[in-house]
UniProtKB/TrEMBL annotation:
<dbReference type="InterPro" id="IPR017920">
    <property type="entry name" value="COMM"/>
</dbReference>
<dbReference type="Pfam" id="PF07258">
    <property type="entry name" value="COMM_domain"/>
</dbReference>
<feature type="domain" description="COMM">
    <location>
        <begin position="122"/>
        <end position="192"/>
    </location>
</feature>
<dbReference type="GO" id="GO:0006814">
    <property type="term" value="P:sodium ion transport"/>
</dbReference>
<dbReference type="Pfam" id="PF21672">
    <property type="entry name" value="COMM_HN"/>
</dbReference>
<protein>
    <recommendedName>
        <fullName>COMM domain-containing protein 3</fullName>
    </recommendedName>
</protein>
<dbReference type="InterPro" id="IPR037355">
    <property type="entry name" value="COMMD3"/>
</dbReference>
<comment type="similarity">
    <text>Belongs to the COMM domain-containing protein 3 family.</text>
</comment>
Length: 194
């Protein structure tokens, strides 16, 4: 697995017995996995972690959760994880502690990653209406057309969840929107041809 320099540095802090003894390492590992599985607060206020500098703790948490998710995403086995952890100075005992937590939480993390949509919401239909504003709320004459636009949007891959995005715009704003959408369509067409 390819790991960024920041992730490697965070894991090196975690491997260092000066920062994390075995008890605090074990507690930290459970906190890191737990924060991903439960999608709640990361729990860095655990009593076993009170003596560790907060900036080091946060850096290690980000590095560890990144490493965990990358491992689950790539379906990494024990030898792959062990090799990566050895590269950042983990000893055999810490690797075993980490891997047992990894195995315990792997299925939950796979489910978490599967639940994340692979594509952004997309527009499936557009409705519009032209209104003509004669006066505003201050009883001043306006005499301007106004367009009410309604985009029907479906979320992600499944297409089951939909909503409407409504907005009001002037003729100039509508022309600008249409121009930008045409530019985006041309850019997308060029990108798919490359």
């Amino acid at each position: 697995m390819e790991l960024s320099e920041s992730v490697q540095k965070g894991l090196q802090y975690l491997a260092d017995a000066v920062h994390f003894d075995l008890k605090s390492f074990s507690a930290f590992t459970e906190v890191a996995f737990g924060s991903l599985v439960s999608r709640s607060e990361c729990g860095l206020d655990h009593p076993q972690l009170n003596h560790i500098d907060q900036s080091v703790l946060k850096h290690c948490h980000i590095a560890t959760t990144t490493f965990i998710l990358e491992g689950v995403k790539q379906n990494a086995d024990k030898s792959t994880l062990s090799s990566c952890l050895e590269d950042v100075s983990f000893d055999a005992e810490r690797i075993d502690v980490f891997y047992s937590s990894y195995q315990h939480h792997k299925r939950s993390l796979e489910t978490l990653l599967e639940s994340i949509g692979g594509s952004p919401p997309h527009v499936t239909d557009v409705l519009w209406r032209l209104d003509y504003c004669i006066k505003n709320s201050h009883v001043h004459k306006v005499n301007q057309p106004s367009y009410l636009i309604s985009f029907h949007v479906e979320n992600g891959d499944c297409g089951t969840s939909s909503k409407e995005v409504n907005f009001n715009c002037t003729m100039e704003q509508l022309q600008d929107l249409v121009g930008k959408m045409k530019d985006a369509a041309k850019s997308l067409e060029k990108a798919t041809q490359s």
